Amino acid sequence: MMLLATFMLGAFIIHSVFTEDIDDDDDMGGGMLIPAQNPIQ
Q1: Is the separation of the CB atoms in 25 and 33 below 8 Å?
Q2: Taking the model in full, what pTM does it have?
Q3: How far apart are CA 25 and CA 2, in angstroms?
Q4: C-alpha to C-alpha distance for 5 and 2, rounded to whole angstroms
Q5: What does the pLDDT read at residue 10?
Q6: Cβ count near 30 (within 10 Å)
Q7: Which of 13, 36, 38, 40 is most buried by its number of CB atoms within 10 A?
Q8: What one-character DSSP code corresponds to residue 22?
Q9: Are 17 and 10 spatial neighbours (Cβ–Cβ below 8 Å)?
């Protein structure tokens, strides 16, 4: 069971290193880090 957990953790780490489909730029063109708008100014 420990071998399976080690294999799954290693596979997750290797997969996260090789995937580069992250859209995290913070401009207003879209992405995950767009700041929330405050309607009360």
Answers
A1: yes
A2: 0.47
A3: 38
A4: 5
A5: 95
A6: 8
A7: 13
A8: -
A9: no
> Which tokens belong to 28?
């207003």
One-letter amino acid for residue 41 of the chain:
Q
Nearest to 23 by CA among 14, 37, 33: 33
The distance between the two most distant Cα atoms of the chain, rounded to a whole number of Å, is 56
- Name the percent of the chain in helix, strand, coil, to the closest 5: 40, 0, 60
For 1-41, what is each residue's pLDDT tens digit?
Answer: 999 999 999 999 999 888 876 655 555 565 565 667 766 66
What is the C-alpha separation between 20 and 24, in angstroms, rounded? 11
Structure-token match 């957990």, residue found: 5
| Distance between CA atoms of residues 30 and 32, nearest Å | 7
Cβ contact 17:24 at 8 Å: no
